[in-house]
Amino acid sequence: MIYHTMPHVSKRKLKKKVYSKIETNFIEVFLKFRSRKETSLLLNDLLTRTERVMLSKRIAIVLMLESGYSFSTIERTLKVTKQTIVRFMKMRKSGKFRYLEAKKESKENDSLIEFLEKFLQAGLPPRGKGRWARFYKMANDE
């Protein structure tokens, strides 16, 4: 089992002008990367494992809600609470994530949903050495 801790956020507030500038820089850095490998390396350097898991789960929740998955399926698959799912559903209804949902039509996001569907169909593999080999073989064959 993997345990995650919440990332630390400083309580000291930035001035709006400073925050605006560093947020712009943050976005600009990501726009410069064209390959998945470069982006992955950057994210691994910048974010802790906990932060990557947190962001990945948030994106997956939005995409799974958009694809019509039930709360119980999302809860079980992503190991999140119903309260978290409800929070993201309310944010979606208020208009957030429009751009993420528009990108859902892309091939890459379809592959995430396809991966999750295969994962849900296959179920968790038994414990032991090579436990994921059968799943990855099945996922790559289709």
Amino- and carboxy-terminal Cα gap: 29 Å
Number of individual domains: 2
Task: Tell the overall outline.
Answer: globular
**What is the arithmetic mean of pLDDT?**
77
Order of helical and strand elements: HHHHHHHH
Estimated helix fraction? 55-70%
The helix/strand class is mainly alpha
Strand percentage lies at under 5%
Number of discrete helical segments: 8
Give the C-alpha Rg.
18 Å
> Mind describing the biggest β-sheet?
none
Low-pLDDT stretches are: none
Number of strands: 0
Oligomer status: single chain
Tell me what you see in this structure.
The protein is an all-alpha fold and 142 residues long. It has two domains: 15-46, no CATH class; 47-141, no CATH class. It has eight helices and no strands. It is globular, with a radius of gyration of 18 Å.
What's a concise summary of this model?
By secondary structure, the chain is mainly α.
Supply database-style keywords.
142 residues; globular; mainly alpha
List the helices and strands and how they pair.
Layout: H1 16-32, H2 36-46, H3 49-66, H4 71-78, H5 82-93, H6 98-103, H7 107-122, H8 133-141
Helix pairs in contact: 3-5
